[in-house]
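Hi R.,

Here are the chain sequences for the assembly we discussed:
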Amino acid sequence: MSSELPLRFLLAFRTMIDELHAELARQGHPDMRPMHGFVLQAIGPQGTTAVELGRTLGVSKQAAGKTVEALEQIGYVERAVDPADTRRKIVKVTDRGYDALIRSGEILRRQHRRWAETLGADRLAALENDLRKMTPENVWKLDAPGWFS
Amino acid sequence: MSSELPLRFLLAFRTMIDELHAELARQGHPDMRPMHGFVLQAIGPQGTTAVELGRTLGVSKQAAGKTVEALEQIGYVERAVDPADTRRKIVKVTDRGYDALIRSGEILRRQHRRWAETLGADRLAALENDLRKMTPENVWKLDAPGWFS
DNA sequence: ACACGATAGACAACCTGGTTCACTATTTAG
DNA sequence: CTAAATAGTGAACCAGGTTGTCTATCGTGT
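And here is the predicted structure of the full complex:
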């Protein structure tokens, strides 16, 4: 059935993300939501603002603001007014945020290795190549309200 | 980056689904939501009930009921009490629902052909094979609140 | 024969992650 | 120095889920 392929993509995504967050919870980050790691990455080392973040992710500034607030409450980011422009509030990833980010990276690399072992490194590389060929460039702009769970 | 793979899966899913619904809208089904086609398929030719549907999809009976109601309002399904058990209401796909389903199938098949043309039929088959190896059997139970947009 | 437990559906309140509209405060440009 | 643009925030709303509670009907055990 040709309708199976998109479902398999979704299933693959969810399987990986669910695994990631189960392991992250075990490693001391039970409050991480699927989108959080993604947003932390999007913030970057320089910090950013809600408006900027919204543009990067392809969502409204209000949605970005809400997410930042949630992230702030669980201690993954902090906000400080920009002295050079007191309208702006610079969002920065905290140490705890970085810890989550680093652990996510490790878990994802392990996951990737498991895929390589199961499928063969060559097949996995070919798969990644094919996917890059068929999907848009910009990995950030998922342009999806509620991309995952 | 090993974190790219899950994102590519999501992107691939969304790309296909967005394309499908853009084309479906052009063909006279502008109200179809991503989940609708999926649910229509899950209902099947025999019809089903909210409880049954919920079990199939892995969501609560209330969620299934809400979806059925939405589908009913836009004319894709209809409900009738089961004469053999007046508690039950059998949900059936209407002609309009079937029209959407048939068109979806055609669009998905075209999409699939395009992927085959771009990647090569052999590569696409290998990709599908790899995905089946790495994802759960049951395509219905996505077990995801809000799997797509 | 009938009471009791299980089942189907519906309603309400709530959650998450989005949306738009409206507003204030500040900055920048003409 | 005023006018437009921009950053942030709040409110109301939506979709698609959740749980809890309730009624109506069905089916079974004594």
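The mean pLDDT of chain B is 91. Residues 49-51, 61-62, 65, 85-89, 145-146, 149 of chain B lie near DNA strand C (CB under 10 Å from a C1').

Let me know if anything looks off.

Best,
T.
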